[in-house]
Design a protein that fits this description.
By secondary structure, this protein is of the alpha+beta class. It has a single domain, classed as Lambda Exonuclease, Chain A (Alpha-Beta Complex), CATH 3.90.320. Helix content is 44%, strand content 20%. The chain is built from seven helices and ten strands. A hairpin with a 5-residue loop joins strand 7 and strand 8. Helix 2 crosses helix 7 and helix 5 crosses helix 6. It starts with a strand and ends with a helix.
């Protein structure tokens, strides 16, 4: 279940408030840095240190870089979500809301949230998450299009695999979707891969363990530098 209090309704993606809200947070698009096969490793530690740096400076460690590929993705993402909605029979998707973990150290911005129904206490939603990808290169699109299962996505792109899982985790969703779209293909321009938590329990357990480990290291490093 997604608590209504977790949703930052007035924070638009790529706005200053959105960037500020994600500062020093573990985010879905970067969670793959914490998923090394043998532990956090150097990639995970470097990611944690970047988050500490953001906390202590108030400055993002990396600026967004606009490329033809990213511009293509941003341009066709709304169309992707409309086609996803048609395929799934959905009239309305909540798009681009910053979701913050109740503890404040983790954030996520699914491209869309499919609200299935409100919970019985009226303080939360039962949701599914949607991540929309619009590869501009034909080979990258076809490679993702050929994916049928989450395991296929993991083999093709670990960052995308863990991005979807992390969005589900933060939103308390039992189901997530990866929607892959290229508007120029006259056939097969949309492919949807469904992720179900029940099939991915070991991955979710690992993600929770790595999250807690990362937060502990983050806190210890930050506090040590503040006390110096």
């Amino acid at each position: 279940m997604l608590l209504k209090s977790q949703i930052c309704n007035n924070v638009l993606m790529h706005s200053k408030d959105w960037h500020d809200g994600r500062l020093a947070k573990i985010t879905s698009s970067e969670f793959h840095f914490l998923t090394g096969e043998k532990g956090l490793g150097s990639a995970g530690m470097n990611y944690i240190y970047r988050k500490v740096g953001e906390e202590l400076t108030g400055i993002p460690c990396r600026n967004e870089i606009s490329t033809l590929a990213t511009e293509h993705g941003l341009e066709y993402e709304p169309e992707n979500l409309r086609e996803f909605g048609k395929k799934m029979g959905i009239d309305f998707l909540v798009t681009q809301r910053l979701i913050l973990d109740p503890n404040g150290r983790v954030g996520s911005t699914p491209d869309a949230i499919w609200v299935l129904k409100e919970s019985v206490d009226e303080n939360s939603y039962n949701v599914a998450t949607v991540e929309a990808k619009c590869p501009s290169s034909y080979d990258a699109f076809i490679r993702l299009w050929n994916c049928v299962t989450p395991a296929d996505v993991k083999a093709e792109s670990r960052p995308y695999f863990f991005q979807v899982l992390h969005q589900m985790k933060v939103c308390g969703a039992l189901t997530g979707y990866l929607s892959v779209y290229n508007p120029f293909f006259k056939a097969g321009k949309l492919k949807v891969i469904e992720f179900k938590m029940i099939d991915l329990v070991p991955e979710f357990k690992m993600m929770e363990q790595r999250t807690q480990e990362a937060i502990q290291i983050f806190t210890a490093q930050r506090d040590k530098m503040i006390a110096s």
